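tmp note - Glycosyltransferase family 2 protein
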Amino acid sequence: MDVVLPCLDEAEALPWVLDRIPARWRAIVVDNGSTDGSADIARALGAHVVHEPRRGFGAACHAGLTTATADVVCFCDCDASLDPALLPAVAGPVLDGSADLALGRRRPVTPRAWPLHARLANLELARLIRRRTGLRLHDLGPMRAARREPLLALDLTDRRSGYPLQMVVRAADAGWRVAERDVPYRPRTGRSKVTGTWRGTWQAVRDMRAVLAERPATDPASAAITPGAGR
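out:
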């Protein structure tokens, strides 16, 4: 199993995060321009390090996806807010064939783990996702799992904050089965590049609105590779 860990100045969190990666799973740390030595720390701790010079969460995630070679690929934030040891449980529905995309639904363990403005933005996104796709999701969780080849076939193009949403929207358009699993959400180490400010949060919401405005793909070839087709 491969785990993609987008990373921008996460030197403090990396030792704990990498220590929690399940045994025999490969950690792919995608350094997105860190200046705190994150890449060197990750490499010293045994992670496979990829450098992605284009700034953006989506750019880092996609670089990790294209580097991955495992059949199932997981994604997890690299700030210690989510425990990578829980990845097998989150990926379970994909591994047992009951879902094509599995998302970790964040459950904050303390109020400061998830600022009010970020929670409100997440509620709004969940409403917009339901209206756009019909999926009754509660969270656009950053911990997720899916099979690599179908993910690549979704042809994701967003390279900023809209990447996780575009993955869900295009998966829904392709008829994928999407499952949620609760995961504890802890205060992150360091300041968030997105939800750390009102401006960053609402900029992300605007990016995601652009993704939601995309027209559904109608390419017949896409339907032919739908993971859940015929099940």
